[in-house]
Amino acid sequence: MASVQSFVQNYGYFALIVLSVVESACAPIPSEVTFGFAGALCTTAVLGHAQFSLWAVIVIGTLGSVVGSIIAYEVGRTLGRTVVDRWGKWILLTHHDLDAAERWFDKYGNISVLIGRILPVVRSAISVPAGIAEMRRGPFILLTALGSLIWVSLLTGLGYAAGTNWPRVSHDAHVFQTPMIIILVVLIAAFFWHRIRTVRRHNAR
């Protein structure tokens, strides 16, 4: 968290562009810290002067998120089935999974992308399965932009409202994240155990 904040403070808008693009391309960078801190820097309370414009942060964050999401989407669309053909058993995916993903996105793709873009963790990962399922590019980009706008605006606004209280808010958020991370790790472990059994059954047929 401290390294992200230092990067944002030292490199300004350039840092926001880089972090938003990379985070939305599936890198584990906490956007909550990036845009919460940027929102606090839109006030005069932290540095004694406003480093950022509130609207500029929102626009840059949204555009960067869309660019990163498109990169992840195109990777999924271009390499998805090839990767499964070559390394499916190692990454616990089968063509049956890809077919199921396509059916899911045919029915619920729009709402999945929109809601996924405003959920922590999910927002960074939703683009790849959307690409693998070959969701139409137009709706994907539009819904990604809308979801990203909501998410970035919310985080930036919260940081702006926190102002001088940002260190406390950041600390409280970090404390709150700890049990959430533990729960997430348990869920991921359970998911992989289930996937291993499913793939083994599928390959045994």
Can you describe this structure?
By secondary structure, the protein is mainly α. The protein has one domain. 82% of the residues lie in helices and 0% in strands. The chain is built from 8 helices and no strands. It has helices at residues 2-24, 31-40, 54-91, 95-116, 122-125, 127-132, 137-162, 166-204. The longest helix is centred in the C-terminal third of the chain and has 39 residues, at 166-204. The model has no long low-confidence stretch (mean pLDDT 79).
Counting structural domains, the number is: 1
Mean pLDDT: 79
Query: What is the N-to-C order of secondary-structure elements (H for helix, E for strand)?
Result: HHHHHHHH
Distance between the amino and carboxyl termini? 47 Å
Q: Cα-atom Rg, whole angstroms?
A: 19 Å
If helices are DSSP runs of H or I spanning 4 or more residues, what is the number of helices? 8
Q: Globular, elongated, flat, extended or rod-shaped: what is the shape?
A: elongated
The portion of residues forming beta strands comes to under 5%
Largest sheet: none
Number of strands: 0
Binned, the helix content reads over 70%
Uncertain segments: none
Structural class by sheet pairing and helices: mainly alpha
SSE inventory with pairings:
Elements: H1 2-24, H2 31-40, H3 54-91, H4 95-116, H5 122-125, H6 127-132, H7 137-162, H8 166-204
Helix pairs in contact: 1-2, 1-3, 2-7, 3-7, 4-7
Short description:
The chain has helices at 2-24, 31-40, 54-91, 95-116, 122-125, 127-132, 137-162, 166-204. The chain has 205 residues and is mainly alpha-helical.
